[in-house]
Structure formats: C-alpha cells, structure tokens
Design goal:
Layout lengths: L1 H6 L4 H7 L4 H22 L2 H7 L3 H14 L1 H4 L21 H20 L2 H24 L3 H16 L12
Helix pairs in contact: 3-5, 7-8, 7-9
Length: about 170
Amino acid sequence: MEISATAGHANSAVTQRYYRNSPRDVADYKASVRFFQECLQSLLINGQQVARFGFDPEAHEWFKRLAIASGIESACGLSGVEADGAVRSDFVFAPTLENMLDLYLAHRALMSSKLTAPASNWNVQGVPLLGLVLAIRQWVFEKGFGEMYRQGVRRALKLLAAGEIALPTVLEI
C-alpha cells in the first residue's frame, strides 16, 4: 500500500488507465481472450452442434487441436483420457522414422515462424506448439530413439534440399 501512495495511486482504477492500454495492447488482449474462448468452445461443442450453430467445421477442428496442444483442455479439467481410461490417439507419438522426420520438420517450421510471425500470434499459437514439439523430442532422446531421430533429420534435410518436400505451415496468421 505504501508504494501505491508514493506513486500517487489512490486506487486500482488509476493503474488501469496508465498501464498497457494502447490500442495494440488492447487488441492483443482481446485476441487472446477470443482465442481462449474459441478453444474452449471447440472442446465443448460436438460435430452436430457445429453444423447446427453454423460454425466453420475446419476452424472448429483447428481450435480443438490447439486447445489440446496448448494445455487449455487440461487446464479446464478436460483430459486426453477417455472415460474408460484409454488414451486418445492424438496423445500418442509412435517412434517411427516418418514421425521423426515430421517432428524435425515441425520444429524447424516453428523456429522459422518465430522469426517472421507477429509477436501476438507467436505467443498464442507458436509457444504452446513449440513446447509440445520440444517435449516430444526430449522424450524421443530419453527413450533411446536419438539415432532414429537423427536419421529422420538427415532424410528431411535431403528431401528439403531436393525440393521434394517443404516446411509445413504451423501457424494461422
């Protein structure tokens, strides 16, 4: 309370007016709130309701995947485990050479996007996805699949150099 008085803050309303209220900050805040709401909505609305309410099914699925990857699903008390205890397939990473190649491409695409995406998009979309990719990569090495990962990286680099594949799009900008 002493610091507030020294700074001339009579009440909490003074603080709001002077901190982070530029049009850009307000727009970023509103975008974050909309993102969270869209993710939550995608978790709570099933396929039939998507059609009934006229939502875009593709956007619905995109927000649902991001809600799972970003941890919003878990934070809301929802989980990747079905009622019978089975783990949903989108929470399973199979250590195959093809998946190692995809894991490397996802990591590389995210790092590329970090340099070019607007900060607000990177913070909302990129950070959770990068965290997921890094966690999977760490698991790969901890479980002894490091050599397979390196083989996937070498294969990806050859295919990229030959122009046979391209980095995937990882952020909706």
